[in-house]
Amino acid sequence: xxxxxxxxxxxxxxxxxxxxxxxxxxxxxxxxxxxxxxxxxxxxxxxxxxxxxxxxxxxxxxxxxxxxxxxxxxxxxxxxxxxxxxxxxxxxxxxxxxxxxxxxxxxxxxxxxxxxxxxxxxxxxxxxxxxxxxxxxxxxxxxxxxxxxxxxxxxxxxxxxxxxxxxxxxxxxxxxxxxxxxxxxxxxxxxxxxxxxxxxxxxxxxxxxxxxxxxxxxxxxxxxxxxxxxxxxxxxxxxxxxxxxxxxxxxxxxxxxxxxxxxxxxxxxxxxxxxxxxxxxxx
Length: 283
Known about the structure:
The chain is an alpha+beta fold. It contains four helices and twelve strands, in the order ααβββαβββββββββα. The strands form two sheets. Strands 1, 2, 3, 4, 5, 6, 7, 8, 10 and 11 form a ten-stranded mixed β-sheet that branches. A two-stranded antiparallel sheet has the order 9-12. Pathway: Steroid metabolism; cholesterol metabolism.
């Protein structure tokens, strides 16, 4: 799905966005190197990698996470990594972004027309939450998302592929004002959690065992990603960038789709903020 994070936005000078550019370039390079090094099964040895902000140390036995043990599982990991890399490359390219919406609270959504005439949307926001808290809500506890986001009917994890990759089935809710209508999604989601940032990437995937469901139009996500980075001055606040790249399928006019998708990003961010506020109150 995502759902959603990382740069100089459409010619507007945001210092905090510019500061993320270097990190993003490094992340793209690191993930690209990781893919190149993992072309054969025998090369997957250690899940602990040399990401930005980490000095590589030989991992202790108790620190090593389980890795996929079959060729089938490796396929999903590679699909998730490639989706993340491609999405980060889209964010890294500064050319062609135009402001769609600028909210009073500082949230900004920009769009860009990609080859094939599909628009992608990039939301930039600052959230009152730590990277770990957002990672927990958006990846670890993704099946609970419908509890705080009324736009989602349910999300089910179909496959757990090691600690960083999952395959999910998602159904959007039938809500008033939803111009696109109900859709379902089958996606591979990959996470990369490090000291300086969290990356969540994903893309549509096909499973013979899980064909399109009767009564739904199966939309396709991706490649898409979310990047979360702590504010330098306050680790309880995070910079949040969400690249939304979706083919909703069906016969909807592009004008309707291109109005609905950025509004869906704003709605998601509003629901997420309410969840974070409620969690802080309960805590």
